[in-house]
Amino acid sequence: MSSSEASPQKGASSANKITHLGEFRLKRKLGAGGMGDVYLAEQESLDRKVAIKTLKKKFANDPKFVERFYREAKAMAKLDHPNVVRCYAVGEDHGFHYVAIEYIDGKSMQDWMDELKQLSIGDATLIILACLDALSHAHESKLIHRDIKPDNILVTSKGVVKVADLGLAKAVDEDNSMTQSGTGLGTPLYMPPEQARNAKHVDHRTDIYALGGTFYNFLTGKFPFSGDTALELIMAKESGKFESVRKLNPEVPEKLDLLIEKMMAKNPDHRFKNCAEIMSLLEDMELESPSLSFIDGEAASGAPRVRRKGKSKVSSAAAPKRSSGHEVSSAKDAERSTSKNKKEVVEQRVWFIQHQNAAGKTIVSKMTVAQIKQGVKAGVINTTAKVKRTAEGQFIGLAQCPEFDSVMQVRTIKDKADARATNMQDKINEISRDYDRRNRRRFFKNLAEGTWGWITLIIYLGVIAGICYLGYLFIPELWRWIAVKLNLS
């Protein structure tokens, strides 16, 4: 498609179509969104592809909205994060207000969900972690998305996750309503109930709720709430009840199920305080895949990957000149023998060590290097223990001595891992307690509602019985009175 075929027109009567907006040459139309049309363009000064979003006429005719649009676009341009679609420029040309953003050569997660129907736990977790990282960065800059959904989560051809429309979603939402076109108050399928009640007074926790709903959709292929109309959907959300992820997908671990439920708590105060808290929990679960499985392996080669250390190789040019096989072998044997003897001598050296015994009392003992290492590995000797070579010397920390450096590094890593596991268990216990509290509240609420229903039924049946009894007593008398009045036999 030529640029003239894809460019916006100034009006229906205009004969010529626009091929440039500022320094951006329009190439073809990509689609239309809540804000307006979207075009693929080329930034001529930097020779790079960009996406151009133009404002609809109903927005462009509102000076207050245009001012806010520019303000939000400038705020978005300040975001610099690998998982956020970048904003390059905002301006006005030929009567069109536009914003130039990073062009993503891939598809949205909604496109992928239409194709895949459901994601693996590893893929879904990897995408959500990237979104949490992006949203955390945005929230620190006082930007709230307010329209998180699979449509606004893009994946490049190399498997990099990008959150789109950060900042712009807020500008467009403020003057829209549920009955207008566009994103309005957000997408009803994912937005929290408080956003439907008052979209102008929400905070970053609205993004947490919507991302929880998106996570739910990724893992189950379904939506937590349903309704034939937006109003029915919002009313369903007000109940706060939905089928658990684990019920629809038994492969989902219970702690992940609890995490999603807390992200989607009806009351914002019952959700996580921030995205960093959720990221910490998810990373501790270690459920994410190293890369997205639905992206082709070769295409995904540009995605960030963990580089593992390998053995270094010595080139033939840098290698030492070879001697005869016998000489080389003898030299190596001698080197190994010397190294072994030195190590044995070091291991048998006696040190004075200041440490705590089993009763918690600080004592000074004499131990060999080998004994101290074994004690540190077994956890008998604490990492705060101090040593000295001679009785007159000064105690120093174990980590300061080369003899104990390696064993202390291993012990430190182990202590951190143990602390991390304990912290993880504490967080899981916290989610479980919160889950139990809400279940108890739900039980008593249902019990109260059920008891009141029975009481109402009993009263209703009593009233009917009373009416029947009064009829039984007075209808014969009433009939006799009517018969006398009408002279009936």
From TrEMBL:
Coiled-coil stretches noted in the UniProt entry, renumbered to this chain: none
Top enzyme category:
transferase
Keywords in alphabetical order, please.
ATP-binding, Kinase, Membrane, Nucleotide-binding, Serine/threonine-protein kinase, Transferase, Transmembrane, Transmembrane helix
CDD domains named among the record's database cross-references: STKc_PknB_like (cd14014)
The residue ranges flagged as biased composition, category Basic and acidic residues, are 329-342
- One Pfam family from the record: Pkinase
Asked if Nucleotide-binding is a keyword of the record, the answer is yes
Where do the annotations place ATP binding?
A: K53
Q: Which reaction does it catalyse?
A: L-threonyl-[protein] + ATP = O-phospho-L-threonyl-[protein] + ADP + H(+); L-seryl-[protein] + ATP = O-phospho-L-seryl-[protein] + ADP + H(+)
Task: List all membrane-crossing ranges.
Answer: 452-475
Protein kinase domain residues are: 24-292
Q: Where is this region: Disordered?
A: 303-342
Tell me yes or no: is Glycoprotein among this UniProt entry's keywords: no
Q: What EC number(s) does the entry state?
A: 2.7.11.1
The protein's matches in PROSITE patterns, at most eight in alphabetical order, are given as: PROTEIN_KINASE_ATP, PROTEIN_KINASE_DOM, PROTEIN_KINASE_ST
Give the Gene Ontology MF terms in alphabetical order. Answer: ATP binding; protein serine kinase activity; protein serine/threonine kinase activity
What is the protein named? non-specific serine/threonine protein kinase
